[in-house]
Amino acid sequence: MPQDHPLTFADADQASIPLALLTAEAFDGWRLAQEPGARGWAEANGFVAGPGQVLLFPGDDGAPEAALGGVGSAKDRARGRFALAAVAQSLPAGTYHIESGLPQEPADIEAELLGWLLAGYSFDTYKEKTGKQVRLVAPEGVDTARIEAIAAGEALTRDLINTPANDMTPDGLQAAAAALAHDHGAQCSVIGGTELLAENFPLIHAVGRASDCAPRLIDMRWGQSGPKVTLVGKGVCFDTGGLNLKPGSSMGLMKKDMGGAATVLGLAQMIMALDLPVQLRVLIPAVENSVSAGAFRPGDILTSRKGLTVEINNTDAEGRLVLADALALACEEESDLVISMATLTGAARVAVGPDLAPFYADDATAAALEAGGRRAHDPLWRLPFWEPYETMIEPGIADLDNAPKGGFAGSITAALFLRRFVNEDTRYAHFDIYGWQPEARPGRPKGGVGMGARAILAALPDLMGLEPAE
Question: Which of 255, 256, 306, 320 is the catalytic position?
């Protein structure tokens, strides 16, 4: 379950240690300007302003009275994110303030300060808490509430993904959504079990019916005025592959198959905490893709909420099925923007690796999202809704094929499949995310991670005609 993370800035009147940030390019100039004692201290400690390097200057009592933090060379900074997070992770416990060395652009400052907060994240629900407290007094003129809200949303996403599937069941995901709704005065309703059939959500029911924990559709609404934004997140809480059973080596990380749901909930928390002037709706089909006598089968033909029939050629291509019914519902009322997020295909990961969030959108929407990603240091990579591949998702025996044979363009054909359930006049973007950090990086420990949410948040003013954040 989500934890209570202290990802906040220290009070401005709190005693703090001055921290100067130094690039590798500026190090020689700094070294030559120092007194012999300071210069010798840096040399003795091997400090050259490399990424994440820290040099502490002890006071008379031995405790640090000042600190230097290295942010590396221009090449280092171009190759990585959150240089300040690397410094924060290397510092001993204490409270600091930044004396010099922050970037010039406000968006870059926000990203670095966010990185500091995210460096304090740890997932320790199931073990003794061991994290150190490295606090920061934020510089003057910074919108601390905004940065803290973004950090809280990211922490929620990470917690939800990191929680094992025995606790993060469809019930658990529903509870997390209900708690978020309660905290922000949103409405949250649920359609579950056989009621899904009565209310015409046949694909969600088919995918989840084999589990002892009933499938459900979570529907959260917030905001009374402004543009309508609908977020749809894949909530497959565990994916065995169904009757097309995954091998054990492929099943080990399947607790993260609800990463799309976790990401839209984290983004929803950011939007609501920042009180953005939008009407927000969040739809999450929450299921477990399990194996039992009642599981849906290869060769089945299922009729979707929209009326399109789908031939099941692989029960392990289940995420697009549950999203299809949710997208159909989303488009039954007017929306200014519909976004789906899902840990949908391995093809996306093969194409761009674990750092980039591939997405699909029209030209104008894509340009706004890409610009938002650059401002938020949340990298995206656009892939095409490639029209000639439409025939690959048409099996002949039904309207659609959930798993085209041949293995080509797996992420693209999945995106084209989902687009069939979106009205042609609806502004739509789809994200095929990974949701997992395979190796620890500054501000991003190994484990669940948000992808694309901060880019979307940064792009919303342009996309929806809102006043930009100060």
Answer: 320
Q: What is the DSSP letter of 367?
A: H
Cα 379 from Cα 443, distance rounded (Å): 15
Cβ–Cβ under 8 Å, residues 436 and 450: no
32-80 pLDDT, tens digit each = 999 999 999 999 999 999 999 999 999 888 889 999 999 999 999 988 8
281 in catalytic set = no
What pLDDT, on a 0 to 100 scale, did the predictor assign at position 172? 97
Q: Where are the alpha helices (DSSP H) in 35-119?
A: 36-44, 74-79, 83-90, 106-118
- Domains, the chain, ranges and CATH? 17-128 (3.40.220.10), 148-464 (3.40.630.10)
Cβ–Cβ under 8 Å, residues 82 and 111 = yes
Q: Where are the beta strands (DSSP E) in 193-289?
A: 216-222, 228-233, 235-239, 279-289
Average pLDDT of span 265-283: 98
Q: Are 450 and 154 in contact (CB under 8 A)?
A: yes
What does the pLDDT look like over 365-383, one tens digit per residue?
999 999 999 999 999 999 9
pLDDT score of 3: 64
Three-state secondary-structure class, residue 315: coil
The whole-angstrom separation of Cα 121 and Cα 445 is: 8
Residue 129's pLDDT band, with cuts at 50, 70 and 90, is confident
Give per-residue pLDDT as tens, 140-169: 999 999 999 999 999 999 999 999 999 999
Element of type H or E holding 339 = strand 337-342
> Cα dihedral sign for 457, 459, 464, 465?
positive
- Out of 246, 374, 382, 441, pick the active-site residue: 246
- Active-site annotation holds for 221: no
Are 158 and 124 in contact by the 8 Å Cβ rule? The answer is no
Contact 219, 281 (CB under 8 A): yes
pTM (2 decimals)?
A: 0.96
pLDDT at 468 over 70: no
Q: How far apart are CA 318 and CA 350, in angstroms?
A: 19
- 8 A C-beta contact, residue 302 and residue 312: yes
